[in-house]
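User: quick one, sequence for these tokens?
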């Protein structure tokens, strides 16, 4: 349903390094990086996007005042959730929920991990496909 999303960040270089490392276990790479002159918004200083395909999915936009939010990425295997959590912590994220099956009110078999990224965003990776 969602084609892509944008996160506004203050510390662009730190955010870019964090997402490059944290999303690598999901197969995400940085596709493009734009200067202020190349972005469509005058408020954006620099921008880059990440994806696990050939079209942008996650944009990071450097701005003066970001608004924290929650983002959940899909994983096809529980091992990817585990690898994301480890990579995100190693890249400077803070633990906000270790990998594991979540209890109600989550759906049965909901396997997820949560971290707070360096900008304060609540980032989740969830596997709904693979059962134990």
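Assistant:
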């Amino acid at each position: 349903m969602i084609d892509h999303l944008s996160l506004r960040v203050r510390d662009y270089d730190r955010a870019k390094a964090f997402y490059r490392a944290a999303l690598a276990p999901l197969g995400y790479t940085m596709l493009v990086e734009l200067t202020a002159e190349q972005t469509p918004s005058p408020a954006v200083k620099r921008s880059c996007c990440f994806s696990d395909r050939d079209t942008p999915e996650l944009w990071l936009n450097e701005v003066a005042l970001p608004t924290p939010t929650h983002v959940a990425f899909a994983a096809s295997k529980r091992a990817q959730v585990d690898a994301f959590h480890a990579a995100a912590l190693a890249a400077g994220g803070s633990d906000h929920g270790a990998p594991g099956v979540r209890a109600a009110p989550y759906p049965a078999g909901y396997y997820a991990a949560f971290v707070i990224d360096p900008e304060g965003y609540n980032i989740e990776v969830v596997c709904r496909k693979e059962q134990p």
